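Check this:
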Amino acid sequence: MNTKSLVTFKTILEMGSFQKAADKLGYTQSTVTFQIKQLEEELALKLFEKIGRRMELTQAGKDIMPYVDMILQGAEQIGNYGKSLSEISGSLKLAIPDSILIYNMQPFIRAFAHEAPNVQLVINSIQSGEINQSVVDGTADIGINCEKESYPDSVIHKQLGNYKAVLVASPFADRSLLDFVTPHQRKPFSLICNEPDGYYQLDMDKYLAGKDIVLNAPMKVQSIEAVKRCVMNNLGIAVVPTYSIGEELKNGSLMPIKTELDEKKYHSFYIYHKNKWISPQMELAMNLMKEYLGNENI
């Protein structure tokens, strides 16, 4: 069996389409289609089916995924046998929320590139709620995430660091309206967020409900930077990790709002599939994560 066709198969799943997989691999779309057709004929299985305009993985395709991973991992092990970290090749795929990627990952990336210069580091910034699934389905080798209420049985999760979250407003907000401790109030603010299912976001929702503090309809935007910009321009308030707003608190472009959650600590974790072979680059990455992200305050 040609491992190239298996790599193409995996790349289609990672990229979401035949055309995107072709672009990443440097093939034409017809080459990708031909390789998948050959693989289906060799396995006597239908791997993809067209639903509407999309190509979806069949149940047979889902069933053979663990075996595809085993074959590709075995090929990688053989290719890297006896090599030092500076000599190994391959890739490492990470899935990370944009808040952690933007504000905490640069020292890790620099150290990883120095230790394993021939390994391609692929970092996907995705919603926190999608990270567990990306590890389960193999599109990410390691996920880094803020605390979640539960994890799938198929993943191993290990704590990295601690962080706090704080409610913030624009310095132009009416300060007489910024009492978020006294219960039974109606506030003329929207709560702005980029991840409604974020653990600290859900905690704030529960806190406000418990206090019977009623806000305007919430606003959802695409990134933590967009959240901050909206709050700076007095479009609403937001609860954000303190590591993401250090500069803004210092220069006064954001203002903290006191709540009873101010001192609560949350945790960050790294996760990986329990059946996945721990490659040298994965082991290096996990050690560097502990060194650069596994501190008291992420």
Q: What stands out?
A: DSSP finds eleven helices and 14 strands in the chain. The chain has a mean pLDDT of 89. The first strand starts at residue 48 and ends at 51.
